[in-house]
Design brief:
With about 200 residues, the chain is mainly β. The chain contains no helices and 17 strands. Strand 6 (about 70-75) and strand 7 form a beta hairpin.
Length: about 200
């Protein structure tokens, strides 16, 4: 007939639900030298858990990192950059919830040459050092420099930060006034062009 009493607290934990893919992403396209920007639609992923914020990340479908020219900002969920080579990228986009549970979807990004332009070989022009502190050399032994070649440098948003001429086989360019980041150098020779990625680190 004895009784014993115990006080205890019972905490009921909510079941975490995995995020889901609710809409696919349309395949994308851009051209070499063109400014590319793509904002991931908000309705691609959903999570029924109240207040569960999803964090997005991106890589190539084969597990490799994104190409150097393509950046993904997981604060704004925006892809941006200026393509440098003709190719097709299969990109995997992953949404992860607070509990570390994730789901992925993928899409293709096709990069083509600009209409009326032929792309020069990557080896036609070299840039060194790269990365640099903003001062670097542009060198080539394979370009026609009789009239000088136009050089354009843009930031990841496509804004022009430098215009000039390549008059010799080796010229130094000073962009030390610019902030650290990725930039894109474009050289035009008649109906041919080349686009190279430049990285400034300070």
């Amino acid at each position: 007939g004895a009784f014993a009493y115990y006080d205890f607290e019972l905490e009921v934990l909510k079941t975490n639900h995995a995020p889901e893919v609710t809409n696919t992403i349309d395949n994308q396209a851009t051209m070499i030298g063109a400014s590319y920007s793509f904002n991931i639609p908000e309705n691609v992923f959903t999570d029924v858990d109240e207040g569960d914020k999803l964090t997005l990340s991106a890589k190539l479908l084969n597990g490799n990192s994104l190409p150097n020219w393509l950046l993904f900002n997981n604060l704004t969920n925006v892809f941006s950059g200026i393509a440098t080579t003709v190719e097709v990228h299969e990109i995997e986009l992953t949404a992860t919830d607070k509990a570390g549970v994730s789901v992925s979807t993928n899409f293709k990004l096709t990069v083509s040459a600009a209409t009326g332009f032929e792309m020069l070989s990557e080896n036609t022009v070299s840039i060194y050092p790269n990365p640099s502190n903003g001062k670097f050399y542009v060198a080539s032994d394979n370009l026609n420099l009789n009239t000088g070649l136009d050089i354009f440098i843009k930031d990841i948003h496509g804004k022009s930060v430098y215009n000039g001429k390549l008059n010799t086989n080796k010229e130094m360019i000073d962009l030390s006034r610019l902030s650290s980041g990725t930039y894109f150098l474009e050289i035009n020779e008649g109906n041919t062009k080349i686009v190279k990625t430049i990285v400034i680190e300070k």
